[in-house]
Design the sequence.
């Protein structure tokens, strides 16, 4: 087994998680064949960095390893429309639905939206489809709203919503291909407003090759929230208030993972979201089935309980995701990896390349 401990003196200054990235390295679309993305491999035991492709993954992992995927499904949560009374442009982001049919959303518009006013929503073709009545504005800045159309939110959003791309991809403006590209091929549990991006690289042929190579595949769920993109604004990581995300891991996945550990295999998480589910479910020291919300913030000197390795994309400066990766991979080694990635012109962020830490 590789050493799963964090570096004992990892920095807690947020400023130490900053780095310079040329804008042209931010990927604006995925590669035509997802598994052709580059894959930087980082061996912690040797402090070494090498360069492969995602298609080589079945050769880079060992028979008996277990790859843990996040099967959340991105919902078309971005809403576009106008204030019914003024015609002013309006944008929103669906967050969740309560058991009375109310939605909780974030929104922005010119001027000041007021409780009681209505928003006319337009579908992806610009056709007016429905209205929302603004209710209460909550302390966190989100709104409780009531749609005039009955039915589950996911069904409604599939008809009128847009892919909630981060702003660094085309200013957040989707094209039709994003409906497929910003979704993993194994997505099955609707609820995310952002993709678990490391999983975007995996194709059905690659997964079949992994299985043929003796590598187990386990699935967990973490519904990625909008908080995943928010930079840490506190000067000290200890002062950062971590966002909550809903997730679960079932008995089948727990059994697969425990069997892997018993047989000497490694647990390789695909994406930081999978890491957070696994480590939340193993908080007691013993991995157990789990369902609920987690605000686990992994930063030095966190000691990993279940995760041995990680496949992940390259993350934004000052993000909790970058902090997690450096906690697992080693502060100086991952800093060097990011410098190498810039020099070697890797493609960054959601539609970009990946690294494998082992």
Sequence:
């Amino acid at each position: 087994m590789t050493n799963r401990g964090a570096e004992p003196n990892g920095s807690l200054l947020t400023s130490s998680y900053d780095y310079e990235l040329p804008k042209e390295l931010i990927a604006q679309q995925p590669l035509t064949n997802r598994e052709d993305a580059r894959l930087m491999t980082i061996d912690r035991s040797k402090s070494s960095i090498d360069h492969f492709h995602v298609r080589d993954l079945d050769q880079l992992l060992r028979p008996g390893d277990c790859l843990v995927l996040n099967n959340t499904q991105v919902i078309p949560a971005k809403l576009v429309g106008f204030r019914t009374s003024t015609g002013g442009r309006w944008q929103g982001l669906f967050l969740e639905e309560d058991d009375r049919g109310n939605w909780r959303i974030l929104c922005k518009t010119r001027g000041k939206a007021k409780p009681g006013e209505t928003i006319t929503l337009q579908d992806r073709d610009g056709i007016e489809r429905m209205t929302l009545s603004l209710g209460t504005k909550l302390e966190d800045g989100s709104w409780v709203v009531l749609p005039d159309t009955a039915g589950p939110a996911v069904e409604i959003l599939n008809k009128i919503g847009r892919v909630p791309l981060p702003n660094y991809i085309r200013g957040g403006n989707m094209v039709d291909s994003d409906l497929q590209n910003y979704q993993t091929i194994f997505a099955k549990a609707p609820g995310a407003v952002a993709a678990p991006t490391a999983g975007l690289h995996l194709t059905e042929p690659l997964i079949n090759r992994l299985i043929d190579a003796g590598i187990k595949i386990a699935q967990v769920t973490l519904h990625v929230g909008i908080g995943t993109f928010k930079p840490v604004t506190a000067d000290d990581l200890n002062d950062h208030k971590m966002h909550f995300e809903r997730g679960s891991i079932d008995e089948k996945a727990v059994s697969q993972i425990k069997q892997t550990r018993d047989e000497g295999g490694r647990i390789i998480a695909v994406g930081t979201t999978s890491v957070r589910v696994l480590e939340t479910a193993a908080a007691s020291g013993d991995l157990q089935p789990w369902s609920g919300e987690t605000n686990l913030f992994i930063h030095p000197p966190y000691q990993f309980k279940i995760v041995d390795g990680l496949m992940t994309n390259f993350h934004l400066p000052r993000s909790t995701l970058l902090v997690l990766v450096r906690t697992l991979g080693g502060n100086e080694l991952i800093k060097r990896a990011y410098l190498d990635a810039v020099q070697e012109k890797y493609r960054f962020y959601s539609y970009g390349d990946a690294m494998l830490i082992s």
